[in-house]
Amino acid sequence: MARPLSEALRTSPLFFEPVPSPARTPAHRVAERTDALVRLIETVPRVDALVIPELVDENHEGKPHYRSGDPRAYARVLAERTGREVITNKVVAHLPDIPAVEQWARETVDRGVRHVILVGGSSRYIPYPGPPVAEADRLCRPTFTAAGGSIGNIAIPQRAGEAHRMLAKTRAGASFFTTQLLFNSEAVREVLLRYDLLCRQASFPPAAVLLSVAPIADDEDAQFVRWLGADLPDSAERAILEGEESEAVRRSGTIAVSVWEDVTRMARTERLTVPIGVNVEQISARHLEVAGGLLKEFAGRIDSSPLSS
């Protein structure tokens, strides 16, 4: 059994974010993918939690189209089969009103899921029916706290004023953040420095921040990363994808490790109080083994990082 998530978030948490099967995937394929994921997690005891994303697209009006089943159902299966903590994502902007947000929180706990990541809509120009993320944090906090759970949000290091948003969300109930996928360390280092300072000035304990990384194996992976909104510089993409697929995986893994080392070195030098961890994402269903390789790399590195010395 993994350590409690509340304990993990105080040090250097390690999450793994697998790709759930699309809603119309045949049952036998879902079972095969689940079995493969369970086997992988059994080989990496260091993993603290599994993050199950909500696969959803938006049209030009912000209306959602869900591409996977309810992530809470899959999360419950993985919790039972792996013994790990599970976290599900929810785009609260798509919920119709405040009572629906509160009802969703109660249903989530009733279904055995105590940890969630609340997410906003993809565009700031669309008037979504659901509340802003910080308000959703406040609404959901009593329910998840009573169940011994926690709330997380997404941090976007490149966004102006992000450290102030993070402090507001922390005050509202967020106990951790996972970042957008990172391919360089400059923006996230600046955000962490600012967030740490703001928390000190407010005399408020900071939430943990998990750096999201992923291996890229081919052009399809790179296109999906851009669709997710991650900052993948053209120069980095060319450098990663030059040559064979195995070389792309190795190069993108090297970049991920470099981001972690740069950030943790800065955190030690500046004596940051923000707990910093890693969230390894699986980009596509085809590449579980590739993502598993990067997960194992970080499992071997995270406790020997500068933050742990």
What is the element layout, followed by pairings?
Elements lengths: L4 H4 L5 E4 L9 H16 L6 E4 L3 E3 L5 E3 L4 H12 L2 E7 L6 H13 L4 E5 L13 H14 L3 E6 L6 H11 L1 E8 L4 H17 L5 E6 L5 H9 L6 H8 L3 H25 L6 E6 L6 H14 L8
Parallel strand pairs: 1-2, 1-10, 2-5, 5-6, 6-7, 7-8, 8-9, 9-10
Antiparallel strand pairs: 3-4
Q: How would you describe the overall organization of this protein?
A:
- The chain is globular and about 50 Å long.
- It starts with a helix and ends in an 8-residue tail after the last helix.
- It is α/β, with parallel strands linked by helices and 309 residues long.
- The chain has a single domain (5-308), classed as Alpha-Beta Barrel (TIM Barrel), CATH 3.20.20.
- An eight-stranded parallel beta barrel has the order 1-2-5-6-7-8-9-10, surrounded by five helices. The chain has a two-stranded antiparallel ribbon with strand order 3-4.
- It contains eleven helices and ten strands.
Brief characterization of the structure:
With 309 residues, the chain is an alpha/beta fold. It is 46% helix and 17% strand.
- How much of the sequence is in beta strands? 15-25%
Main sheet record? 8 strands, parallel, barrel
Report the total helices. Answer: 11
Helical content, roughly?
A: 40-55%
Indicate the radius of gyration in whole angstroms: 18 Å
Low-confidence spans: none
Count of domain modules: 1
Principal-axis shape: globular
